[in-house]
Amino acid sequence: MKLPFYFYGLYIVLNSLSQRTICLIGVRRVDNSVVPKRIGVIGLRHDVDTKIGLLKGVPKVIEIENRFDVRSTFFVRVKVLKSSGNEAVEVLKNAEKNGWEIGLHLDNTLALESIESPQWELKELLKYGFNIRGATPHGGIFEASGEKVWRVLDTLSLVYVQGYNNPPPNLKSIALPQHITLDWYVRKYGTKRGYKIFLNDLKKRLSKKGTAIILTHPEYFVLSTGILGSLKPRSYGFRVRMLKYLNKLTIIPLTFLEIRVLSDIYAKMLSELKEEYVFKTLYELSLLISRT
């Protein structure tokens, strides 16, 4: 059937109007008068340190991020994965299949010969079939900061690495900037005040550098962060160990009362920032940084 001539005129007008849209980072086309231009890129990182974080926390993170059409990177300790059974493996495989990234959370950050090597950890994770492109240091056993740690991460020959403080020169891998840890703010200042201070620090970093990385630990999506957050993250010694032990004792009652749990505040963050900033996996962020 031949269409009336005015149909073609209507098509020309609509096509002309469509050219006034803008394309933001990603694939979505939106009208510039409705949605503000995004002014920064945020990489989302989750360190899977514990079995409860893997089995209970990771699915919770995925459920929240899926609600906002966001993807992130889970850095997994090999020993935690190996001790968590097939259920945990399937959780991560399904996550990777649906757009989330899996990375290595390295235990042997100093390449000590008395325990399994960093290369062994990477090889074991690759055996599960994951596409591993990045690694971060786990600070719960050995040091997580310093030039030595950066150099050890670099021996894995991955696309990118991310650690603490400034990286040394001449790394083969792309070195990502240091993160800002949401659960640390909640533990130290409480949920409402901590989120406010966190958001202020995050936006300062974004306005200065254009990129930022947010770190969380999935266990705190189902457990409370506790209350003794004034501890320095990398402090050791008897007094600090005792305070950390006391903090763990506060987690059970606070979890029961749903105090200082990250799930709601993380969803709030994604909801408030999704129109202003772009969320990326760390691999995607590394590609953006490598082009600048």
Provide a descriptive summary of the structure in words.
Helix 2 (51-67) packs parallel to helix 4 (85-97). The strands form two sheets. Strands 3, 4, 5, 6, 7, 8, 9, 10 and 11 form a nine-stranded parallel β-sheet that branches. The protein has a two-stranded antiparallel ribbon with strand order 1-2. The relative contact order is 0.16. The chain has helices at residues 5-18, 51-67, 78-82, 85-97, 118-126, 147-154, 182-189, 191-209, 238-256, 262-273, 282-290, and strands spanning 22-23, 29-30, 41-48, 73-76, 101-106, 134-137, 160-162, 174-176, 180-181, 211-216, 278-280. With 292 residues, the protein is of the alpha/beta class. It has a single domain (41-290), classed as Glycoside hydrolase/deacetylase (TIM Barrel). 46% of the residues lie in helices and 15% in strands.
How would you concisely characterize the structure shown here?
This protein has 292 residues and is an alpha/beta fold. It has helices spanning 5-18, 51-67, 78-82, 85-97, 118-126, 147-154, 182-189, 191-209, 238-256, 262-273, 282-290; strands at 22-23, 29-30, 41-48, 73-76, 101-106, 134-137, 160-162, 174-176, 180-181, 211-216, 278-280. Strands 3, 4, 5, 6, 7, 8, 9, 10 and 11 form a nine-stranded parallel beta sheet that branches. A two-stranded antiparallel sheet has the order 1-2.
